[in-house]
Amino acid sequence: MHQPAQLILQDGTVYHGWSFGYHKSMDGEVVFNTGMVGYPETLTDPSYRGQILTLTYPMIGNYGVPDTTQLESDQIQVSGLIVTQYID
Questions:
Q1: Cβ-contact 59, 31 below 8 angstroms
Q2: In a domain, 8, yes or no
Q3: Residue 18 lies in a domain
Q4: Which of 8, 27, 45, 75 is most buried (most C-beta within 10 Å)?
């Protein structure tokens, strides 16, 4: 289930969208990744710890998640995830 959400930047700019997954207010540096593949590795990469990750490629999740031995760590490291479109 998703619910209305806002991304509020430090300069006061507000973007409206939908929250999905775990519903909790978070803060962090907004960063981006332009890769077409490798999003599971990116989400588990410790260098993204505490950041809000924007994935710019429009189709995320269409090929599944690899075996956990191929991930960068044993847990999701980002504080939040921004995607263009979410389909439940």
A1: no
A2: no
A3: no
A4: 45
Separation in Å, CA 28 to CA 34, 68, 86: 19, 26, 21
Answer yes or no: are the C-beta atoms of 71 and 41 closer than 8 Å: yes
pTM of the model: 0.86
Domain of residue 43 covers: 26-88
pLDDT in tens, 5-34: 999 999 999 999 999 988 899 999 999 999
DSSP 43: H
What three-state secondary structure class fits 74? coil
* CATH code of the domain covering residue 72: 3.50.30.20
Tally the domains of the chain. 1
pLDDT of residue 83: 92
